[in-house]
Amino acid sequence: MTSRSADPAPGGAPETGSAAPAPDAAGPAPALALSWRPTLSAPPPRPPGLDPVRRGPLLAALAAAAALAAYVGAVHGTLPAVLLLLGTGLGVALFHSRFGFTSAWRQFIAVGNGTGLRAHALLLGTTATLFALIIGTGTGLFGNAPQPSAGPIGIALLLGAFLFGIGMQLGGACASGTLFAVGSGQSAILVTLAGFIIGSVLYSAAWPLVADLPALPPFLLSEHVGWAGSWAITVVVLLAMVVGTRAVQNRRVPPPVGAVPTASGALRAIRGSWPLAAGAVALAVLGGAVLLVSGGAWGITSAFNLWGAKLLQLLGAHPEEWAFWRQPDQAAQLAGPVLADKNSLTDIGIVLGAAIAAAAAGSWRLHTGLAWNTVAAGLAGGVLMGVGARLAGGCNIGAYLAGIASGSLHGWLWAAVALAGTWVGLRARALFGLANPKPGDGVC
């Protein structure tokens, strides 16, 4: 999900442009004319007003979040309850800012609009700053020592990131986008979530086949130049990313990103929508808080693997006998309750937080009448992302965000290869009759 439309376009923003191009569209600008406002083919559209608050869904979501947090706190302790509440905050921030990864990369590859990627740079830079402060000083709560997210550099990383990039475009959402879209009532994304779980289970069943793929050890900048040096290098690369996306946008002159309904004044904080920059900072602070209280970075997709294995157990299967689930850490995860699992708690919180935000914005509603091509693409994309995230050791959050913020080389490699997968995914969308942004669109 990062653009003014969510990956699956909750809240009414179109996934691709449909308005007629502006007749007085601006002409191309020189590639190096890096103005404060990068060139667009038409003025950004005015956001529409919000629908009335959906009081029933809002009260139900608030009650569910409060009751579940109280139950988790009573049964499993304060730390799990805090993680659930942090996840709820993440869901609110994701929905209100419509912060996406799938749509941001689609818009950049298809038409050259770098708005979303520049928001990524702010999110990554702010998170990297918080990670350097927390991990570099060894500051942790609940007795946890914060650890960076670093992954091996090998075939599994590259193949997994590539599959994930394709899957994002077919499924219409990334890992975080899937959760917040489900919470906002986007029933089509339930198919993507199901595919995510299926793909994760397929990976764990076939794990012996890929467990020993060639790989180099993880590479952390902090181990070579310290946390201050790691932070400085990361910020410089992110600034280059901002400059590069501005240059591309000024050369390609894309349509603007579609606007989503918004309130005005102080109500905007409660009802949305938020500026992308506000969403980036909020997500970084909440993600830093997850690291502070749990000792590990915010992650998403390992929970899908756990949910799939738990479901198989309910159906009478025995995934605990698979080689993957016999590993010590995985065996402990499978033996424990879902509501004590770190990533499951934040995932469930994201769904609840998105439901709260969508209902407050007046946009929560169940969508029915799914087209076959949407279902097929969502399922295929979800499976590809499920397999890809497990191969790569993370998704757009666990590998891309947490990896880059930790100063890990694998995060940057994941981003580059997933971007290549996005290019392929955009072409694969045509096989399912799904549209992509075009230069002549009124919005993208």
From TrEMBL:
Residues 1-30 are annotated as: Disordered. Pfam families: Sulf_transp. Keywords: Cell inner membrane, Cell membrane, Membrane, Transmembrane, Transmembrane helix, Transport. Its main location: membrane. Coiled coil: none annotated. The keyword Transmembrane applies. Belongs to the TsuA/YedE (TC 9.B.102) family. This is YeeE/YedE family protein.
